Amino acid sequence: MLKGTYCVLDDEQDFLTVAAGEFKKFLPDMKGVFTTDPDEAITLARKDKPVIFIIDIVLGGKKGMEIYQRISAISKKVRVIFITGDENFINNDDIRNQILLEGSIDLMQKPIKWHELAIKVKNNMQLLLYQCNLEDIIAERTQQLIHADRLATVGTMVSSIIHEISSPLTFIKANQEMCKYAVGNAKKVTENKEVLSIFDRLIIPSVDESMKGVERIEELLNSFRRFYKRDDLVSEVDFTELIAEVKNLTYYNIKRSNINFIIEVAKSTPKKITCKKQELIQVITNVVNNAVDAFEEKAVFNGEKELKIVVSGSDSTVNIVVSNNGPEIPQYVMERIFEPFFTTKTAEKGTGLGLAISRQILKFMGGTIYVENKSKKHPTVDFIITIPINYNA
Question: What is the pLDDT of residue 224?
Fold first, then answer.
């Protein structure tokens, strides 16, 4: 079925009645609007949808060309075929040239050859739809490039921030080690039980906890460094390490949201796979963060929050299921969930590109991603990712 609408604007009601019958015969699949009111045509243009207008050059006391100029100023998704019963317009080359310069498809003389007009409408609607589709694709790609540039900028900033944090972290770690060394020496030269008790109960455990915190920060910084480092190389990846990277990158959000995070890797899962490691980490991280955000969007959630990654495999594929027991996804969201720039989040929280980019990455890997919604029979929202074990670039 050919999408799009045509609109016939003429001041003669009898002509519109004949037009409605003829177009129904020749263009049965297209939607038609027949009107004597220019304001109705202008209102149609404001919807900013593809429309082919058929307009009489002379509409009583109004000029059809001026009306179309108003319409085309409102929307760039409109085209026009002018019609007239006046031979002076048909034979006047200056008027015809002006009409074509205004962007008209053609000027046709009444009585109309309806089959010929229908063919012009149909062919030009196909061209218009194709053009609109290309423009939408270009706009989408432009936004993706802008987003990619922002990510590149963030990557540079992250690199600088990591460097700035790493330097004082080195001092903190060295001082903690020195403190532990000093306490060890102090314990050797004192027999005071109270002092020894303070060392064992307070100081040493505190130093140990601080050292664990430092190591945790170092581990997180290394994960960020690897994540934002541009790496398009296909390599053999240890799947356990890959999931650990995801856990590091999502740790803060999960902990802040008080979510029980479970990882299950079946024995059938291949230990190593061939892929673009950072891209696969990006995919899984996007899906996990999306699940975390879903918990936050629900004002009240009864029960324990649980997010689970279940990994299994076969001789040729790996399946990754990221499930959460959060709220059911509304149907209108399900229909557009992988659509670029579609998001239910605020501008501060999301661009609507995470899942769209994830699907594109997996497509290039030869993999897939789809979502199974929560229902009365199905207790979780599941994002199911399937990728081949050996990725061929």
Answer: 63
pLDDT, tens only, 10-39: 999 999 999 999 999 999 989 999 999 999
Q: What is the DSSP string of 232-282?
A: ---EEEEHHHHHHHHHHHHHHHHHHTT-EEEEEE-TTS-SEEEE-HHHHHH
- The amino acid occupying position 281 is I
CA distance 57 to 89: 9
Residues 6+ apart with CB under 8 A from 138: none
Overall pTM > 0.70:
no
Cα 67–Cα 72–Cα 77 angle in degrees, nearest 5: 135
Closest by CA to 226, choosing from 294, 276, 264, 184, is: 276
Euclidean distance between CA atoms 250 and 247, whole angstroms:
5
Please tell me the distance from the alpha carbon of residue 239 to that of residue 270, in angstroms, as a whole number. Answer: 8
Tokens of 266: 């079946």
pLDDT per position as a tens digit, 129-174: 888 888 877 777 766 665 565 555 555 556 667 767 777 888 788 8
Residue 347 CA, distance from chain mean position: 13
